[in-house]
Specification:
Elements lengths: L2 E2 L2 E2 L5 H4 L8 E3 L4 E3 L4 E6 L5 H13 L2 E5 L10 H9 L7 E5 L2 E3 L1 H9 L2 E4 L19 E4 L9 E3 L6
Parallel strand pairs: 3-6, 6-8
Antiparallel strand pairs: 1-2, 4-5, 5-7, 9-10, 10-11
Length: 163
């Protein structure tokens, strides 16, 4: 999706605009893995030319375009992403490759803070998509509370839940 001056550009992709991106522009690229300890994210790549992340990184590195990597907490990994990429990207390996990318990582917790001013904490861990005791499916419950100066609402629940 490409948005220019607040207007969605139907049918336009990053491949169409990458050469024209410049400092001050922003790329949002979802990630498939995140190492929160090292604040690194990585993208799975199945295209032989590196896909959209390879195109994005040309603008990020060559023209200082800002890269924001939104990624859910359920995509956490415990290993070093560069080491994991080395395993997946070695000649002779099969399946997708892994592209560790340098950018600004935004999880649900940071997004809640940026959008509403609340502080939030991850409360419990469990396998993503595993059902709750009542049978409802869900991901990682988050507890949020307002900061005194914001006056925003406080509550608890899963990301996206009313609270």
């Amino acid at each position: 999706m490409v948005i220019v001056n607040g207007v969605w550009q139907s049918g336009v992709t990053i491949f169409d605009v990458a050469d024209n991106l410049k400092e001050g522009d922003i790329i949002l690229k979802g990630a498939n893995a995140v190492d929160l300890t090292r604040r690194r994210a990585a993208i799975l790549v199945s295209h032989s030319k590196g896909g959209t992340i390879a195109i994005a990184m040309q603008a990020v590195t060559g023209r200082r375009v800002r890269l924001i990597l939104p990624v859910g907490l359920e995509k956490r990994v415990t290993g070093d992403l560069d080491r994991l990429a080395g395993i997946l990207n070695v000649p002779g390996a099969h399946g997708p490759r892994l592209f560790p990318a340098h950018g600004e990582i935004i999880t649900e917790i940071e997004a809640l803070s940026l959008l509403t001013g609340v502080t939030a904490d991850r409360m419990v861990g469990r396998k993503s998509g595993a059902p709750y005791a009542d049978g409802a499916a869900g991901d990682i419950p988050v507890s949020a509370r307002s900061l005194p100066e914001t006056g925003g609402c406080a509550g608890g629940g899963s990301p996206g839940a009313a609270g």
